[in-house]
Predict the 3D structure of the following.
Amino acid sequence: MQIIQNDCGATLIEQLGALLLGTIIITALFGFYRTELFHLLAQETRMATLEDARGAMDIISRDLKLAGSWGAGSPPAETHLGDDPDGDEDAVCNRVYRATGRMIQIQMDLNGNGNCADLEPRENIRYELGASTTNCPGATVIRRNGDCLVAYATAPNSGMLFRYYDENGLQLSETPAPAAIKRIGIAFSVGMKETDFRTGASLTSALSSSVELRN
């Protein structure tokens, strides 16, 4: 019996070609995996940031809806112990004490004790778009009575966090008379530390809302 042996094998060129082909396939799969992983992490970060921003928007909207809520039925006289920050000549607490495009200060007397400066419940509230703090990073942030509410915040409407409207729906100036304000528009964007690795652009989420003042 004659045994025929086949000594043919893969040549070096064939082996190198197979290695090159495998490298190309692995590189493509890795690139796809890396892109999908980035999108997943970016989406998770965006959702977490958006949830925090929505919570902040809810807090702002709730406070604005309560502005001018007098527990005793009418605005109490100012005590000058904290509810009259400017020491002005107003004789009573004010629904809207001061308003600009980047700041609003409101007052209320929820417990009806005649004092608009109580801390529990917080009845003299100031929101502002300002510079960052040690525990609130970003080019600008939103503060609530000086405390950090939203980090990495910006106002997309020409730097205006708030817009004001009268009873006819007409937009007021950036520094309106407080008594003329009937509706307040709120708009801000929240950025994240992470950027799009392909473009270097910041990832942001934008929110807006509108509040009708109750009185």
In short: The mean pLDDT is 84. The chain has one helix and nine strands. The beta strands are 96-99, 103-107, 124-130, 141-144, 147-150, 153-154, 162-165, 183-195, 202-212.
